Amino acid sequence: MERFLKKGTRRRSATPTAPSPNKQDCDCTSTDSEKDVLPESQKNSKRSKISTVWKYFKRSDDKKLAKCLDCGKEYKTSGNTSNLRDHIKRFHPSLEPDSNTTAVKRNDTASTSSSCRSSVNSVASLFKRAVLYESNSKRKTDIDNALTEMVAKDVQPYNIVENEGFIKYSQVLDPRYKLPSKTYLRDVLMSNLYKETSAKLSLIFQEVTDVSITCDLWTSSANDSFLTVTSHFVHNYELKTASLATKKLLM
């Protein structure tokens, strides 16, 4: 019996004991150090894969567009940067990421200023593409009247509004103003000016006692003959001359 108990004790003592705390601490320390090192190396490898072109572009919230921080132009992108690099090469060669020279470093302040500059350019282009004046706006009416008076006083042809140089000149003066057609200038604007001038002249004749009338015959460049009746009078101590009518002579 005693022999049997001794054998059982020996068998139990043969059971492997738990590892010492020192070994556990050593193993855990080595494992923790590996955890600290591996993610850092992975982060570095990921950072090295990011294209340098993203220094000069900003992605939209949906990741479908990329906006140039320098000029504000947008491109579609799904992760490919070929079109973005091509934009840098063509429009901003000094910022080319792949050049041998050191790329220009931009901090947050530079990015903010470039964004503000692009927004200012956008606002300026918006004014250039501003909506045209409404047909009943006072500004358009004033310009139309000035144009009609110029044609009448300077004896300009109605098709002046179709001349390329005059159109460009008008757009530079006011991009929001659209020139009328020669038909509208002749049938509407000039007709209205004639009615207004006739009404004013009638009021002046009511204050004038004496009026002299002369008749002139003249021929146009197309060999058409006309008869013009002109009035001469004194109004407010000044000599005035007004054309009353011009009629084409029937040959």
Describe this structure in words.
The protein has 251 residues and is of the alpha+beta class. It folds into 4 domains: 15-48, no CATH class; 50-128, no CATH class; 130-206, no CATH class; 209-251. Helices cover 49% and strands 16% of the residues. The chain contains 7 helices and 6 strands, in the order ααβββαααααβββ. The protein has helices at residues 2-13, 21-49, 82-91, 108-128, 138-153, 164-173, 182-205; strands spanning 57-59, 65-68, 74-76, 212-219, 225-235, 238-248. Strands 1-2-3 form a 3-stranded antiparallel beta sheet, with no helix packed on it. Strands 4-5-6 form a 3-stranded antiparallel beta sheet, with no helix packed on it. Helix 5 crosses helix 7 (182-205). The radius of gyration is 45 Å and the shape is rod-shaped. The termini are far apart.
Question: What is this structure, in a nutshell?
Answer:
This protein is 49% helix and 16% strand. It has helices at residues 2-13, 21-49, 82-91, 108-128, 138-153, 164-173, 182-205; strands at 57-59, 65-68, 74-76, 212-219, 225-235, 238-248.
